[in-house]
Amino acid sequence: MEFSSHRRSPDPDSPVTPSESLTADELARYARQIRLPAVGIEGQQRLRDASVLIVGAGGLGSPAAMYLAAAGVGRIGIADGDRVDASNLHRQLLHRTGDIGAPKARSAQASIGEINPFVRVDAIGRRVSRDNALDLVTAHDVVIDGTDNFPTRYLLNDACVLAGRPLIYGSVDRFEGQVAVFATNGGPCYRCLFPEPPEAGSVQNCAEAGVLGVLPGLIGMLQATEALKVILGLGDPLTHRLLLVDTLSMRFRMVDVERDPSCPACGTREITELIDYDAFCGAEASRPAGATPAIASSPGELTPAELARALEAREPLRLIDVREPYEWQICRIPTAELIPLGTLLVAPPDVATDQRIVVYCHHGSRSEMAAHALVRAGFKDVRNLVGGIDRWSREVDPGVRRY
């Protein structure tokens, strides 16, 4: 059976309804939280009556589910069609060694039930798809995106916009993470920030790129925080902002995100039904996980100091920033031009193939991919800035803002 639900409570035959008061056991469990004037008994009842859909019982979904359950969110849906693997355990704390091989949704259901027996847990042991996304999203008050692939991110975004449900977005990559709240009334959606998905295979997932185990815990906890704020109507949720987290420098930065009137999802409302997201994101033609794209020849490398000398000497070169537009707004190297990686992979710059090109990104991984793509496209003198703009700001120009 793919879908199951249970309420682990002292009296499972008496389901809690919105009209019921908190029991003495619940009052004792949530006492420190109820003591907050902004929460109180009314806020705790609101949490008890709320429902949250968590898509992905992995690195992000684990801490989000654990903290939401502990806080007293009354119903939590866990949607994940995978099984627990040993490689999950360093970051996915809902699962234990003994759970290896078990369905993640079931493992998560058991763990959450141990955390709080007053929470109903729905184990949805199947992949969220175009066929079931709207039903699942509509059945919950808030949706948390704990996925690591673009087709599901765009699917959840569009489903949340269509259903009028807030989407708590989170993502991680190596040592960095992002958090935002999308699809709220009047706020932007994921498509406003990323109108088009990157080229298939251009962005690695955790299995390919790796991730510091504590990072998803931090990002997932922040997602849970935003979900609680949305449910309780507290504070200033990240509805028009993107939070960027860099654990290596322990810097937290904020980028404003405005609603795009031309966005086909939340702007023009051209998207009236869910589409084939694997085709939209090019997933059908992507390379297998772990496969390495063919490289005609290798590009060169350039240190920040070497680039600085070349720029000072006014050597003829074209400096290309392959980051996203929101990163460009935070900081950039003077004389650079912005060509995001997804754009560059589809349409290389229209310049002579013998012109010297230097590419850079945040830490150097995306620009390395861009450099190889340019070499394959026939460019003869391509260099990747080692360490990206982060190293540039440390070694050459401290005035360039780090993030």
If you had to describe this structure to a student in words, what would you say it looks like?
The chain has two domains: 3-285, 3-Layer(aba) Sandwich (Rossmann fold); 300-395, 3-Layer(aba) Sandwich (Oxidized Rhodanese, domain 1). The chain is 33% helix and 17% strand. The chain has 16 helices and 14 strands. Strands 1-4-3-2-5-6-7-8-9 form a nine-stranded mixed beta sheet, sandwiched between helices. The longest helix has 19 residues, at 214-232. It is elongated, with a radius of gyration of 23 Å. The two termini are 46 Å apart. Residues 1-19 and 284-296 have low confidence and may be disordered.
Structural key phrases:
five-stranded parallel beta sheet; nine-stranded mixed beta sheet; disordered N terminus; alpha/beta; Oxidized Rhodanese, domain 1; 403 residues; 2 domains; elongated; Rossmann fold
CATH superfamily of the largest domain: NAD(P)-binding Rossmann-like Domain
Number of helical segments?
A: 16
CATH fold topology of the largest domain: Rossmann fold
Order of helices and strands: EHHHEHEHEHEHEEHHHEEHEHEHEHEHEH
Text of the CATH class of the largest domain: Alpha Beta
What helical percentage do the residues reach? 25-40%
Number of domains: 2
Instruction: Report the CATH architecture of the largest domain.
Output: 3-Layer(aba) Sandwich
Going across the biggest sheet, name each strand in turn: 1-4-3-2-5-6-7-8-9
Secondary structural class: alpha/beta
Gyration radius, rounded = 23 Å
| Head-to-tail CA distance between termini | 46 Å
Give the number of DSSP strands: 14
Sheet having the most strands: 9 strands, mixed
Uncertain stretches of 5 or more adjacent residues: 1-19, 284-296
SS strand fraction:
15-25%
What is the typical, i.e. mean, pLDDT? 88
Question: Tell me, what's the shape?
Answer: elongated
